[in-house]
Amino acid sequence: MINYNGYYDAGEVFGKPEQIELDFIIKNGLPILCELKSSIDKGGMYLFERKARFYEREHSRKATQLIVISPMIEPKAYKVAERMGIDCYGDSQDMDRL
To answer: Could you give the CA distance from residue 73 to residue 67 in angstroms, rounded to a whole number?
Structure first.
């Protein structure tokens, strides 16, 4: 996994200028964007999606997949993830399917 840190001064992601942190995996030369959390709710899922779109715009690269890895995913967050095309894993060991 590779860690990305960027700074976005227009405030689109957090509503104010702020540092953006993402993790990603490169598979077959294409980025898979990841969010690793101890727990995540639906607000966290929306935030991850905004961070992912920021990364795609800044680097002119479309992510092939968005994934969240968390042992505690709020039930409403699963619904948000499904609507946004974000894959959810309860443990990094489950990622063997990638």
So the answer is: 12
Q: What is the pTM of this model?
A: 0.84
Token readout for 58 is: 């800044």
Assess contact for 17 and 54: CB atoms under 8 A: no
Give the count of domains, the chain. Answer: 1
Length of the chain: 98
Token pair 């490169």 is at which residue? 26
Shortest CA distance to 68 belongs to which of 51, 46, 49, 87? Answer: 87
Boundaries of domain holding 14: 2-97
SS3 call for 4: strand
Specify the CATH number for the domain of residue 13: 3.40.1350
- Show pLDDT as tens, one digit a residue, over the chain (98 residues): 788 787 767 777 777 878 888 898 888 888 899 999 999 999 999 999 999 998 888 889 899 999 999 999 999 999 999 999 999 998 776 666 55
Token pair 């060991």: residue:
93
